């Protein structure tokens, strides 16, 4: 690839990130595709495209994240976002496998352990979920999403012991590449964008 093509790919990816941060998904998608036209081997562009497409077109998002993994099998962000996609579609075993793969190369990322805990909890493994939330808190003391999720899990356990109906509190997401949390329900939290690789964003 020539230097002008590399420069064009980098510039398009910068524009895509900027558009996504502004909330302009349509323009972010266009710039991602421009970046990939210039350099279709850039895993970062495929990851961002997968993130952008996640809500609108989960099938295309899966294809983009898979393409990123094919180009960079060890990139934790690709596995993290693939885990988020699987979890959102209730494919919990696949989500757990993706998060655990990401953990291999990003063991200190609290958001990753938090979302692994969410997948484990949803799959019916409360003890393993608690361990994942506590690992997240060990990585980042006071990690907000993990504190909320651990409290939610503990409340469910208490209700079960007392034979009372379990109240649904909800979840808070944590995600690789996104530092802010997206609250989908009052308590549970899932990280959405804390980059596993500092060069990601």
Describe the structure.
- By secondary structure, this protein is mainly alpha-helical.
- The protein has two domains: 1-73, Tetratricopeptide repeat domain (Serine Threonine Protein Phosphatase 5, Tetratricopeptide repeat, Alpha Horseshoe); 98-201, Serine Threonine Protein Phosphatase 5, Tetratricopeptide repeat.
- Helices cover 65% and strands 6% of the residues.
- The protein contains nine helices and three strands, in the order H-H-H-H-H-H-H-H-H-E-E-E.
- The chain has helices at residues 3-21, 25-38, 43-53, 58-71, 76-88, 92-105, 110-122, 126-139, 144-161; strands spanning 172-175, 178-183, 189-191.
- It has a three-stranded mixed beta sheet.
- The longest helix is centred in the N-terminal third of the chain and has 19 residues, at 3-21.
- It is elongated, with a radius of gyration of 18 Å.
- It starts with a helix and ends in a 10-residue tail after the last strand.
- Residues 176-187 and 197-201 have low confidence and may be disordered.
């Amino acid at each position: 690839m020539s230097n002008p093509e590399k420069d064009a790919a980098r510039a398009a990816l910068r524009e895509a990130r900027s558009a996504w941060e502004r909330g302009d998904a349509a323009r972010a998608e266009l710039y991602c595709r421009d970046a990939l036209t210039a350099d279709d081997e850039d895993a970062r562009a495929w990851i961002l495209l997968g993130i952008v497409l996640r809500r609108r077109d989960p099938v295309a998002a899966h294809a983009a994240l898979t393409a990123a993994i094919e180009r960079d099998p060890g990139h934790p962000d690709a596995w993290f976002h693939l885990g988020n996609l699987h979890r959102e579609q209730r494919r919990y075993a696949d989500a757990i496998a993706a998060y655990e793969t990401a953990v291999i190369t990003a063991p200190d990322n609290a958001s990753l352990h938090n979302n692994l805990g969410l997948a484990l909890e949803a799959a019916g493994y409360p003890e393993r979920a608690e361990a994942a939330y506590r690992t997240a808190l060990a990585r980042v003391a006071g990690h907000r999403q993990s504190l909320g999720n651990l409290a939610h899990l503990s409340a469910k356990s208490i209700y079960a012991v007392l034979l009372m109906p379990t109240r649904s509190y909800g979840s808070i997401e944590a995600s690789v590449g996104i530092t802010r949390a997206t609250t989908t329900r009052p308590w549970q939290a899932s990280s959405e964008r804390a980059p596993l690789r500092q060069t990601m964003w």
